[in-house]
Amino acid sequence: MRAIIEANKYVELTYKVIDQKTRQVLTQVEFPLGYVHGVNEILSPRVMGALEGKSEGDIIEVHIDCNDIYGPRDEELVIIEAIANVPEAYREVGTAILMENDQGQTRSFLVTRVDARTVTIDGNNPLCGREVVFKLEILMVRDATDEEIRYGGKVDAAPDLNGCRAVSI
User: Fold this and answer.
1) What pLDDT does residue 153 have?
2) 43 lies in a domain?
3) What is the pLDDT of residues 114-149, one digit of tens each?
4) Residue 168: is its pLDDT beyond 60?
5) What is the pTM of this model?
6) CATH number of the domain that 138 lies in?
7) Which of 10, 30, 88, 117 is deepest in the core (most CB within 10 A)?
């Protein structure tokens, strides 16, 4: 009998996030992601709920309207600035910029466009306004150890340092 995903089960999975309209893969994990189900929520509650009751080898798709998570796109968070006013370090698409307002609140912006005259930065979450599909493949489900439950994930043994000697520099 295959173990099913429920509270206190150790789960390893891979996933990709696909734009529902364009079918473009927006992100994917390169290495299996491990966690203890019910102890920590590593993905959105809707995705975590969809995993409940599934087993090793299952592949599931969860449709999510990102407006429900991040709210609608706010065009006031898109800033187009003359390139001469932007430090060289922030003139590359994909660069993250942490900005602070007059009240001391911070927000992360992302450089989304650079041309000969301007730099565009966007404070919206990149998934704002999108409908996406989380495609998950469940690689492993087993009982979590007490230590894994306590820490919310796999606990690797410390390296064996017996036989090593200290070196002075």
Assistant:
1) 82
2) yes
3) 999 999 999 998 888 899 999 999 999 999 999 999
4) no
5) 0.70
6) 3.10.50.40
7) 10
Residue 155 · residue 145 · CB < 8 Å: yes
DSSP of the chain, one letter per residue? ---B--TTEEEEEEEEEEETTT--EEEE-SS-EEEETTT---S-HHHHHHHTT-BTT-EEEEEEETHHHH-S--GGGEEEEEGGGS-GGG-STT-EEEEE-TTS-EEEEEEEEE-SSEEEEE-S-TTTT-EEEEEEEEEEEEEPPHHHHHHTS--PPPP--TT------
Residue 82 lies in a domain: yes
Segment 8-47, tens digit of pLDDT: 999 999 999 999 999 999 999 989 999 999 998 888 889 9
- The neighbour count for residue 98, using CB atoms within 10 Å, is 8
